[in-house]
Amino acid sequence: MTGKVNEALSYEQARDELIEVVRRLEAGGTSLEESLALWERGEELAKVCRRWLEGARARLDAALAEEEAGEEEGRG
User: Fold this and answer.
1) Is there a contact between 42 and 14 (Cβ–Cβ < 8 Å)?
2) Which of 26, 40, 58, 73 has the most beta carbons within 10 angstroms of its beta carbon?
3) Residues 52 and 16: beta-carbon distance below 8 Å
4) Which tens digits make up the pLDDT trace of 1-23?
5) CA pair distance 45, 23, nearest whole angstrom
6) Residue 71 lies in a domain
7) What is the pLDDT of residue 25?
8) Where does the secretion signal sit in this chain (predicted)?
9) In total, how many domains does the chain have?
């Protein structure tokens, strides 16, 4: 359960696994060691999701900036 998260995970894969980790933690019934391993995995998955979302935000910002630059040129 512990170890480095596969960087090739898609956002959806990481999100779905993170949902499962949270579900298992909320359900309880795991040992302290298992709970810690799940928590660590969840943290790693959250980082993957955050990187995907930050990348998406950067792409949107770049596209909006490009669109604004095009509109500025059209007015000039």
Assistant:
1) no
2) 40
3) no
4) 444 566 689 999 999 999 999 99
5) 14
6) yes
7) 97
8) none
9) 1
- Asked if 11 and 50 count as a contact pair (C-beta separation under 8 A), the reply is no
Contact indicator for 26, 50 with CB cutoff of 8 Å = no
Q: Which domain holds residue 20?
A: 11-75
The whole-model pTM stands at 0.78
Residue with tokens 């669109």: 67
Instruction: Establish if 5 belongs to a structural domain.
Output: no
Tokens of 10: 């898609």
Phi, psi of 66 (to 5 degrees): -65, -40
Is 2 inside a domain boundary? no
Report how far residue 26's alpha carbon sits from residue 6's, in angstroms, rounded to the nearest whole number.
24
pLDDT above 70 as % of the chain: 89
Q: Give a yes or no: residue 6 inside a domain.
A: no
- Cβ atoms of residues 6 and 46 within 8 Å: no
